[in-house]
Amino acid sequence: MTFETLTLLPADPLLALIGAYRDDPRPSKLDLGVGVFRDATGGTPVVRAVKAAEERLLGSQDSKSYLGPEGDAGFVAALAPLVLGGAVAAERVAGVQTPGGTGALRLGAELLAQAGVTRIWIATPSWPNHAPIFTAAGLSPQPFDAYDVADQRLDGDALLAALDRAAPGDAVLLHGCCHNPTGIDPDAALWTAIAERIEARGLVPFVDLAYQGLGDGWDADAAGARTVLAGCRYGLLAYSCDKNFALYRERTGALWTVAPDAPASAILYSNLLALARANWSMPPDHGAAAARIVLQDPALAADWQRELDAMRQRLRTLRQTLSALGTIGRIDLAPIARGKGMFATLPLSRTQVAWLREQHAVYMAASGRINIAGFDEAGIARFGEALAALDHAGVA
Ligand code: PMP
Hints:
By secondary structure, the chain is α/β, with parallel strands linked by helices.
């Protein structure tokens, strides 16, 4: 094996899109590509309560000495009841802080591999980083079609049929809410059916909850995760605070495990610590420390929830405005009102996506995924005009 065997890899397409957008001089340009929340001015501000917590941290922190592989235990302890809502007995749950939701997914993937799990079922399309993360940890992703992008619909039967095909002990990846990239989540009945199927077939649910509070509301957004994790023997929950606390680059997340009882939970926890130690030794502290201060202070927590409510309301309003455009050419925007969170995926070909960028300065992922938060009212009108022009030009 030599370095000469390595090949040049293409840059991450979404990161390349950021550069292209930045360099585009057209004032009407529209950035629907990158997956960060934007407010009405197009900014991604620091959450007020986080800013206040950071100021406190600056004034009071008297050491930056090492913590441990578990990270900020106070952060994990304060967040756990808010996320799980008491759905799973505390003795069955163990958790550690991780570098973002990505770190949580990677750590969970390695725990699965360590436990001898070899396959993880992933409904497609999914977040493009899911399959690489599981592959890197030595698992074999089992993709299956479940989202009908043209109709913007989740095919629950296809999802349940995949769970029937999975072998006992296989893992199943589930987006907790605000599915990335479609915005289409299971309804309560489907979550119940998924939970029953997972329990009956002895599968291991791995829930990825990266957008709690940005869909239907704090508890509603965790309801599916709670249903599934309450019913399983073993399960995992990867969590990100990078969207709902707007901590993005601070890389703030957590991984929780669910086990049948306290002794089994202690075993999982000890394995999480060992795996974390071999990966990053300990996670970065700042974001989790700031989030902990917010969570432990009722006034700051209330203010954070108010700001999160406003983010969710903005997304909902934008979805309704987009949806009201109805059908333009062959693209039906009406279902966007039913979607949750930041993303929707439109049935556009790569050629059409490129044409929209070149001719109308509309920047979106090649998959047709749009970030709803990238719009303002004027942008929605421009987007509608661009779609009409696309249809008129007959670009396929
Ligand atoms: N899961 C999903 C579905 C995501 O969309 C993202 C972020 N785009 C993550 C996990 C990772 O989040 P983080 O930035 O906290 O690593």
